[in-house]
Amino acid sequence: MLVATLLYRLARFSFRRRWLVATVWAVLLACLGLGALTLSGQLTNSVTIPGTESQRAIDHLKERFPQAGVGGATARVAVEAPAGQKLTDPVNQATVERLVERLKTAPKARAVTDPFQSKMVSPDGRVALVQISYGVQAYELTEGDREAVMAPAGPARQAGLTVEFGGDAIEGMPETGATEGLGVVVAAIVLTVTFGSLLAAGLPLLTALIGVGVGMTGILTVSGFTELNSNTPILALMLGLAVGIDYALFIVSRYRHELSEGHDPEQAAARSVGTAGSAVVFAGLTVIIALVGLTVVGIPFLGQMGVAAAATVAVAVLIALTLLPAVLGFAGRKVLGKRARKQRTRATHGERWARFVSRHRVPVLIAAVAGLLVVAVPALSMQLGLPNDATAAPDSTQRKAYDIVSSGFGPGVNGPLIVVISDATDANTTAAVERVSRLGDVAAVTPPQFNPQHDTAMFTVIPKSGPSSEQTERLVSDIRAQADGTELAVTGQTALQIDVSEKLADAMLPYLALIVGLAFLLLMLVFRSLVVPLKATLGFLGSVVATFGAVVAVFQWGWLNDLLGVKSTAPIMSMLPILLIGVLFGLAMDYQVFLVTRMREEYVHGTEAREAVAQGFRHGSRVVVAAALIMISVFAGFVLADTTLIQSIGFALAFGVLVDAFVVRMTIVPAVMALLGAKAWWLPRWLDRALPNVDVEGEALTKRLDEREPVEV
């Protein structure tokens, strides 16, 4: 009862002091906005993990062999002669040489290779490759820098040559656009239909947008003091919008119910926050646990994304508990609208569905589980990787450059491997070059280079296969196995991506065990049952594997690509599975808390177990359906983004919420609850006595208020 009472008091204070509360949030938003404008730093699109072999090799080269320039941004310029011509023809060669001279003036470029001197002209003479090395990392390059390096291609193209650009120096930062706002428009429509009132629909949107504003400006302000991944604010925006709207939806819905019961606006606001607000706190806590748990997997950029998103979710919870009751104080009874009287009729639809599922619980359960397993089948062939030029959109300059280089030299030239020998001598370096040259998937090996101290050497290995292929991944392992007592390491962009993908894959199961274990304890505390938390986590696992299957079918196999606007197929982003596990688990538990707590409330009040399922649905299903549709809409809006990572995250979360809300929580949960009956609420007596009573639905608070017992502010 303590939590519910505190929230009740907080809501009454916010309602009475609404001008003060609104002013505090407005000032906070203004201050953080000013900080974002004046203190924000440059976001990074680099994906590295300290401690991996490839990263250690880069750090060693920076210290002992800085002249090599390894670790900075790179650009590849692919030049192709027209059909029937060669680049070695005098006119074309002169054009390429002028292009190289102009490229040397590119801002922040450290070195530019001449393809005729470096022998990077294809055997048929039609393709040449110019390499540009930068003294800074890719995220330090501005849009002006990228435009400057591509500008010299104009005269060469006018001369009839094809010139395309690839490499991480060309890749810009992911951005959100107007298309992502379509999800908010759909959310507004869902809210209007749900409430039958524009004012009631506008309140969740208003408070959610304020919460997102606070979260995003806070993240941008922090970026001035620490390096943040460029996807960090985008994930925070996704979750902040989704949970911000949903949490406000639950409280506004309860507020309208309390008004319809005859309570004055102040009491209605306080009661709604004391009851539905308690569920918001615990639902938000599960999301925050899942996101903050990303910090323990040893992957810095993923931990940063998790903490930033968790902070945005925490802001959404605080706004729902403070600013929302203050805004309700301004709105009063106007949120009821003309169609409030129809709510009770619409609420019976959920009850009818629950009774249907209860009557046919066994066939419904079998059909739902079988459906999840069928959708999950593609997940068996999931391949993980990180984006490169091969995964870029077919009409992008990066993909065109990749294809030109592949046609002229073979795909391996797009993903060279750098072998570093830290204890180099002439003898062990020569031996290492010979051993590596004999490996099966090696197309070429360059002569070794030594640092001035002659104690560190490096040479480049060109694979026969492309950077995303399994053959190249095996080649990296085979080269590392050739150490033979030598301090040998493999690095380069391709090796870095392989190491990051492997680290992310290894972290997936421990992370899954961590958040499932913590959330099981939390749900056991909320529901005072062993079976319900177990069922909730098993249902979540079903949602996850089904979502993995759908992601593989769309982004790896290419199903529905034209419909969804996905421009290319590629291995699944390495960070997506672990990120999806964390985010989807927190969101799935939201619906578990909001839906099943109403069933428990009916059961503890004496309703028969199976009837309690139907009654719980009568109270909670309509709002849960609306909340799920809103989340799906918000996430689906990001499928229209330009970058594959954002597209895949948006699709995965939208599909995951769809499956979890409608298949797991709205179908499997009532079927299992009806099948188990009263056994679903079993808890050993000794454990029941040991667990504190958190009263997530505020039952004790409601009882006190109904008995006219005062609750002081």
Automatic annotation (TrEMBL):
It is found in: Cell membrane. The keyword Repeat does not apply. Residues 198-330, 510-675 form the SSD domain. The chain crosses the membrane at residues 181-201, 208-226, 232-252, 273-301, 307-332, 362-381, 508-527, 539-560, 572-591, 623-641, 653-676. It is a multi-pass membrane protein. Keywords: Cell membrane, Membrane, Transmembrane, Transmembrane helix. This is MMPL family transporter. The lineage of its organism: Bacteria, Bacillati, Actinomycetota, Actinomycetes, Pseudonocardiales.
